[in-house]
Specification:
Length: 137
């Protein structure tokens, strides 16, 4: 069987100096805190992926979608998965954050960069190792 790395998008939705994290369930990384995001679909731009994932997962409007400048190489040994994660930034515009995929997310909460919850999803852990800070962009 041919094994390939997949491309994931992680989105920092920023509002009032905080950003959104969700608690994963029923998928790899279950029980960890992650960004809004998912798989980049064939032929999809990074910005369109951000819009689609936000609509599917939390249902809010965002603006100022941009590349963060950060990428990670994420290997999930336990689950036998490999991802390259592209990190995007955007600003919250309007709407109420909702859990629109209750089979995949337990909840969504706003966090400050200096008060991160544990445990974190592997891509965020790898991003932290790079010294990345979404508020320094």
């Amino acid at each position: 069987m041919e094994r390939q790395a997949r491309v994931g998008i992680g989105v920092f939705v920023i509002k009032d100096g905080k950003f959104l994290l969700g608690k994963r369930k029923n998928t790899h990384g279950e029980g960890t805190w992650c960004l809004v995001g998912g798989h980049l679909e064939y032929g999809e731009s990074w910005e369109d992926c951000v819009r689609r994932e936000i609509a599917e997962e939390i249902g809010v409007k965002v603006k100022n979608i941009r590349f963060s400048g950060a990428l990670t190489n994420d290997i999930f040994k336990k689950e036998d998965k490999h991802y390259i994660t592209i990190f995007m930034l955007c600003d919250y515009d309007s709407g109420e954050v909702k859990v629109l995929e209750p089979n995949k997310s337990e909840c969504w909460k706003w966090f400050s960069w200096d008060d991160l919850p544990e445990p974190l999803f592997i891509p965020i852990k790898n991003l932290l190792k790079q010294g990345f800070n979404p508020f320094e962009k």
